[in-house]
Automatic annotation (TrEMBL), chain A:
NCBIfam families: PorB_KorB (TIGR02177). The lineage of its organism: Bacteria, Bacillati, Bacillota, Bacilli, Bacillales. This is 2-oxoacid:ferredoxin oxidoreductase subunit beta. Residues 199-264 form the Pyruvate ferredoxin oxidoreductase beta subunit C-terminal domain. Pfam families: PFO_beta_C (PF12367), TPP_enzyme_C (PF02775). It comes from Evansella tamaricis.
UniProtKB/TrEMBL annotation, chain B:
Pfam families: PFOR_II, POR, POR_N. Transmembrane segments: none annotated. InterPro entries: 2-oxoacid/accept_OxRdtase_asu, PFOR_II, Pyruvate:ferred/Flavod_OxRd, Pyrv/ketoisovalerate_OxRed_cat, Pyrv_Fd/Flavodoxin_OxRdtase_N. It comes from Evansella tamaricis. This is 2-oxoacid:acceptor oxidoreductase subunit alpha. It comes from the Bacteria. Residues 478-570 form the Pyruvate:ferredoxin oxidoreductase core domain. The lineage of its organism: Bacteria, Bacillati, Bacillota, Bacilli, Bacillales.
Length: 288, 580
């Protein structure tokens, strides 16, 4: 049995002291140990941005790709080897701006990948520009007079796109975050986990204190049922998306892999790829 | 009796023009004739002129012909647009329904045959294509039996009576035409072929088949003309071999998904045309710096932007060679026949894994979509080589906190590769410059070591790549060397005997490996020629420039065509003659 320490490496993150991403890193390491996998069974694929560096800070197979494309890379990895636990991760710019198309289509496709977004409502690595998650009026280097575009309600969007697993958490609550990631990994199909992960350097509005004041845990809402899609939607609207916990899960939704014709349990990467003469001749005959 | 002829059928898109050509050519193919087809079509589904030109010959043929012997027309537009191609004494067979008229100055024999009426009398006007096939086949001296197996294959699902009706329609077309044309046309009777049934396929079929035989099991792709047939073939076949095709949201997803699957150990490809390739450029760089094998097919069409999406062009080669920012090792392969497209597709996966680089297999529309006769493909030439990929061996235990040296600096530049899931193989992969373990590093020494390592991987490739240039060197000292790439090979081959007849000594080279450039091989060819000319379907002479640059030779000329149509043999013949 691996422990969370086995998922640690000796690379020192280049995140600012106090960055919310440290908790996400720790939560992934704990969740991986808790679901009972060993480091070589985990592949973490990440995008570009401060948070995109996370794949280099976990002792597992890691692939740090290009901006906005963590999801297609992760889906390729999972299709090649369905025995792997595949986590995709990145920031809100990565997943909801440049990579938004992939996010929506990953939801539709439903390949068994756990997507963890570190959402700080700002572009950190480029030193403070607006993000699709920034509220109207938010002043940044690229919006000196305040943002005049509305913030994207990603949880609502995910549910309406047909997501089978939608959850939200907060960097301050390592216990809940770990549990949510565990549930995401165990979910058979695509899971979207948005984590409020404050940028202590460039976002002076959405701070730890701000989130503590404004977030509502779904566990405090009486009768909340994460299998109820319309309740999930209504609750998100009621709280302007500022809730934490498992928002919606459809445990019955079949994963993409389970629907692919002829797709074997044995990972594709382990199957023999050579044809024999008989198979080849048959293929040729079809062109005669 | 004649050895070869050219036949064209035309009409409105969506009217079954393609299937008319298909049935006609399949029947001839099964009689043992060699065929070469070119489709003229537009970027729309219904309406607009479309035609299918098919060359039929008793010997191998790899080019469209200058002129036309028989034109089968379903509308007047087909006659008006195409009659100028007909040779003197050629024949037009038009459906009486539209009262075909001879255009001014046209000397071809015009026959009006009631395609639609005969078909309707037999049960349904849908069979007018069959009547047309029959009428034109009568001219060639074919018997209705030649169509039995093809019609059976296509219509048996719909029942024996449908098969029977369609054969009747062919026969009725034959009978009508024979009566109508008796004694009034020249000799269109084809000499008997050898009766061997050969494969008849488009370049995209050959690439898809090559990918399958070469071990590709996963293809993420986005539909585009003229590449879609590759994904369409593989979605039919891959599930039988455990794999699959995913139609992605865009070409960026297609390319990065293929990178993900290759990284995890599955041979994966994507295929597109110029617009999709433009979107993939950043991801190709990722494949280069992370040394993740990747195979991309670029089926060139008319650019730039949407350009001429259904027309022939060869203008992507600079983009394919230089299109990624930064500097990476990359391989660009340009097969020049359907057979080569098959073997090169297999080889693309071997090279991608042996050198751990992106490989772009480039075709052009004429090669990708032109349907042609293919000699039997040789399975013994299909071998799978995965280079330094380690799938079995127990890896030595890693020192505490150390990663597997995925990017170990080696003499040949290629490092051992392991895939996720392997114990003691953990390493990091990143598009950021990295050290031997894959961890980000900005140290100048490391940067230089890793850059040099990557860039030396392909140094020897032009020496080991199978025939980087297809050579037809008849002369030790030639007046002219003609160079080309992709589908122009057959057309150049057809122009050469005409030039030789004019008294010129002509050698020919078709470049099959565009990058890294086979400089030594080409230099030896160029040195034997007084003049060198590059034939290419683009406006700026990209291969000409590439050749000049690599060979440090300024006196290389171009014959260019960029109107959307492939070269005709006569164009190459005439323009080469003008050089002297």
């Amino acid at each position: 049995m691996a422990t969370f320490k086995d998922f640690r490496n000796n690379v020192k993150p280049n995140w600012c002291p106090g960055c919310g991403d440290f908790s996400v890193q720790a939560a992934i390491q704990r969740a991986a140990a808790n679901v009972g996998i060993v480091p070589e069974e985990l592949a973490v694929v990440s995008g570009i941005g401060c948070s995109g560096r996370i794949s280099g800070y976990i002792n597992s197979y890691g692939f740090h790709g290009i901006h906005g494309r963590a999801l297609p890379i992760a889906q390729g990895v999972k299709m090649a080897n369905r025995d792997l636990t595949v986590i995709a991760s990145g920031g809100d710019g990565d997943g909801f701006a440049i990579g938004m198309g992939h996010t929506i289509h990953s939801i539709r496709r439903n390949i068994d990948v756990t997507y963890i977004v570190m959402d700080n409502q700002i572009y950190g690595l480029t030193k403070g520009q607006t993000s699709p998650r920034s509220e109207m009026g938010f002043k940044t280097k690229s919006t000196p007079a305040g943002s005049i575009e509305s913030a994207l309600g990603v949880m609502e969007l995910a549910i309406s796109a047909g997501a089978g697993f939608v959850a939200q958490s907060f960097s301050s609550d390592l216990k809940e975050l770990t549990s949510i990631i565990e549930q995401g990994i165990n979910h058979k199909g695509f899971s979207l986990i948005n984590v409020f992960s404050p940028c202590v350097t460039f976002n002076k509005i959405n701070t730890y204190d701000w989130f503590k004041e404004n977030l509502t845990s779904l566990s405090t809402i009486e009768g909340y049922d994460p299998s109820n899609r319309s309740q999930a939607m209504n609750t998100l609207m009621e709280y302007n998306g500022l809730v934490t916990g498992l928002i919606y899960q459809d445990k019955e939704k079949p994963s993409y892999e389970s629907l692919v014709k002829g797709f074997k349990e044995e990972p594709l990467a382990k199957q023999d790829i050579a044809l024999d003469q008989g198979q080849f001749d048959k293929l040729l005959t079809e062109f005669m | 009796m004649i050895n070869q002829l050219s036949w064209k059928v035309g009409g409105q898109q969506g009217e079954g023009i393609e299937s008319t050509g298909e049935i006609f050519s399949m029947a001839l193919s099964r009689q043992g004739y060699y065929l070469y087809g070119y489709r003229h079509f537009s970027s729309r589904i219904k309406g607009g002129h479309t035609n299918n030109k098919i060359r039929v010959s008793t010997t191998a043929t790899n080019s469209i012909s200058d002129d036309l012997d028989i034109l089968v027309a379903f509308d007047q537009e087909t006659i008006d647009l195409n009659h100028h191609e007909l040779r003197p004494g050629g024949v037009i067979i038009g459906d009486s329904k539209f009262s075909p008229k001879q255009p001014e100055g046209c000397t071809a024999n015009l026959f009006s045959v009631p395609f639609t009426e005969i078909a309707t009398d037999l049960g349904t006007s849908l069979m007018k294509n069959m009547v047309a096939v029959g009428a034109s086949s009568a001219l060639l001296g074919l018997k209705v039996e030649a169509f039995n197996s093809v019609v059976e294959q296509i219509f048996s699902r719909k029942g024996a009576s449908v098969v029977e009706k369609n054969l009747q329609a062919i026969e009725a077309g034959m009978e009508y035409f024979k009566k109508e044309a008796e004694g009034s046309v020249g000799d269109f009777q084809l000499k008997e072929a050898d009766g061997k049934s050969r494969m008849f396929m488009i370049g995209n079929d050959a690439i898809a088949l090559g990918a399958l035989a070469g071990g590709a099991r996963f293809m993420p792709a986005y539909p585009i003309t003229p590449a879609s047939e590759i994904m369409e073939y593989l979605i039919k076949k891959l599930p039988e071999y455990g794999g699959t095709v995913i139609q992605t949201e865009d070409e960026i997803a297609a390319c990065t998904m293929a990178i993900g699957a290759n990284y995890a150990g599955v041979r994966s490809l994507t295929a597109s045309a110029g617009p999709g390739l433009s979107l993939m450029m950043e991801a190709i760089g990722l494949s280069g710096i992370t040394e993740t094998p990747l195979v991309i097919v670029d089926t060139q069409r008319g650019g730039p932007s949407t350009g001429l999406p259904t027309k022939q062009e060869q203008s992507d080669i600079f983009a394919m060679i230089y299109g990624t920012h930064g500097e990476i090792p990359k391989v660009v392969i340009t097969p020049s026949t359907v057979e080569e497209a098959f073997y090169d597709a297999v080889e693309a996966f071997n090279i991608a894994e042996e050198y751990q680089v992106p490989v772009i297999l480039v075709t052009d529309l004429a090669l990708s979509l032109g349907k042609q006769t293919v000699e039997p493909l040789d399975f013994s030439k299909v071998n799978i080589r995965r280079g330094k990929l380690n799938l079995e061996e127990e890896l030595p235990e890693l020192e505490k906190s150390a990663y597997f040296k995925r990017y170990e600096v080696t003499d040949d530049g290629v490092s051992k590769r392991v895939i996720p899931g392997m114990k003691n193989g953990i390493h990091h992969v990143t598009g950021v410059e990295h050290n031997e373990q894959g961890k980000p590093s900005e140290s100048p020494e490391n940067r230089k070591a890793q850059m040099d390592k990557r860039l030396r991987k392909l140094q020897e490739l032009p020496k080991v790549f199978p025939s980087p240039v297809y050579k037809d060197e008849r002369h030790e000292e030639a007046d002219l060397l003609i160079l080309g790439f992709n589908s122009t090979r057959g057309t150049i081959q057809e122009a050469i005997p005409r030039l030789e007849k004019d008294g010129l000594k002509v050698n020919h080279g078709q470049v099959r490996l565009l990058h890294p450039f086979p400089t030594d091989e080409l230099k030896a060819m160029v040195d034997k020629a007084k003049k060198v000319v590059v034939v290419e379907n683009n406006a700026t002479g990209q291969l000409t420039q590439l050749t000049k640059m690599n060979l440090s030779r300024g006196d290389i000329q171009s014959i260019l065509k960029y109107d959307g149509n492939p070269f005709l043999p006569s164009e190459i013949h005439n323009q080469c003659k003008e050089l002297f």
